[in-house]
Amino acid sequence: MPSNPLPSRLRVRTVPVDVTGDLLTRIPDEVDPREVVTWLREGDGMVGWGRAVTVRTSGPARFADAESWWDRVRELAEVEDEVRDAGSGLVAFGSFAYSPASADESVLTVPRVVVGRRDGQGWVTHVVLDDEPWPPAHPAEMLARSNPRIDELDPVVETPGTVPAERWPEVVGRAVERITSGAVEKVVLARDVTVRHRDGDVVRVAPVLERLQRRYAATWTFAVDGLVGATPEMLVRLQGGRARSRVLAGTIRRGAAALHETPQGDPEHPVDPRLRLVSSEKDLDEHAYAVRSVVEALAPHCSDLQVPTAPYVLELPDVYHLATDLTGRMRSGATSLRLAAALHPSAAICGTPTAAAAAVIAELEGMDRGRYSGPVGWVDGDGDGDWGIALRCGELAPDRRSLRIFAGGGIVAASNPHAELAETEVKLTAMRHALGLATR
Ligand SMILES: C=C(O[C@H]1C=CC=C(C(=O)O)[C@@H]1O)C(=O)O
């Protein structure tokens, strides 16, 4: 497990403060973009920066190694927490590779500073190591500073990804063949696109996050170790003994164009795309596989698991998704991180059966997904936390001068390869918009 040795002391102090305005503007501009962490929704949540302690893990044990490291950090921490809410006191932000075979490391990190706000209650957490003194600035003074360049996007250009868009329908067609031959029932295939700083400089993430949270306020805007995005899908939230999950699968594009997209579309008698989505056998099938995978993984940990019988339509700025919200009471004592590990990879991003779908993905996608589609989120000292699935996101290259942005879609027997290409394009809109690229 490659990680720096833990310090002999780790002191954590959380104080309540009045936090007004946009949390993202509190992140100092000079912070390395890979050291920025965020978890924001509807303006509330947490932002942080700096690294107090960090673990990097990889391979099949990437979750288990991170969990045992977190247990040691929890034992070591001396916590003074005047707020005592989920996320106050000791907290770590994490992001895990989708595949055990990924060359990309998974990461769990305790920032030096966290600024949080929930339901009008603000707080600041500082972390110091060994005998370091507490930072001299009073939290209120620190919060008075605000990043003057938050609206300044870096100029970027887009270049093709691993599989060029025009070849994507062929790749999807091969997946449909695997499904009709019976090798697999559902498989989720994803593609990437590379975006580079036009002048070869470092791409700053705070302005990207700012645009994501403004347009996609109802999603979770995240940043962990250079992975930035706005996910609509909550793998698991654990708070006060209750687990929740929002499963998404099944998508239709918003807007007038969607009305004419299928061969059956009649421009004279447009059908609301939401109605089309809830009555589409193909999308309902795709959704049912995803729900089943989450129910199977949550059931051993929960009593009283509530599973709605039919999905609802989640409305996002570019797309509608079929969505199911599940809730259960915890009986296993697992932390949110343990639950995220148990739920990954769900059939919303891998397929059914899991092992067969993972093999088809490895064979057909031709790329390493890195941390796209892996769990991303945070865990606090009590084990509570939020873990989303890293979707609608991009991952900064180690040199921070480019990022790969990703989008995928669930393939079932009835999938149309050209419609699947269009679906990945519309899902790429979130990151293209946030980076200031004209959307197609
Ligand atoms: C794999 C992605 O979306 C998943 C989540 C929602 C809907 C999906 C779909 O309809 O295919 C995917 O399962 C992605 O955004 O890259």
TrEMBL record:
Q: Where is the Chorismate-utilising enzyme C-terminal domain?
A: 166-427
Q: In which family does this protein belong, per the annotation?
A: Belongs to the isochorismate synthase family.
List, alphabetically, the Pfam families matched: Chorismate_bind
Q: Does the keyword Ubl conjugation apply?
A: no
What Gene Ontology molecular function terms does this protein carry?
A: isochorismate synthase activity
Source organism (scientific name): Ornithinimicrobium humiphilum
Q: Which InterPro entries match?
A: ADC_synthase (IPR005801), Chorismate_C (IPR015890), IsoChor_synthase (IPR004561)
Reaction it catalyzes: chorismate = isochorismate
Put simply, this protein is called isochorismate synthase
Coiled-coil intervals: none
The record's annotation in SUPFAM superfamilies points to: ADC synthase
Keywords associated with the record? Isomerase
Q: What is its EC number?
A: 5.4.4.2
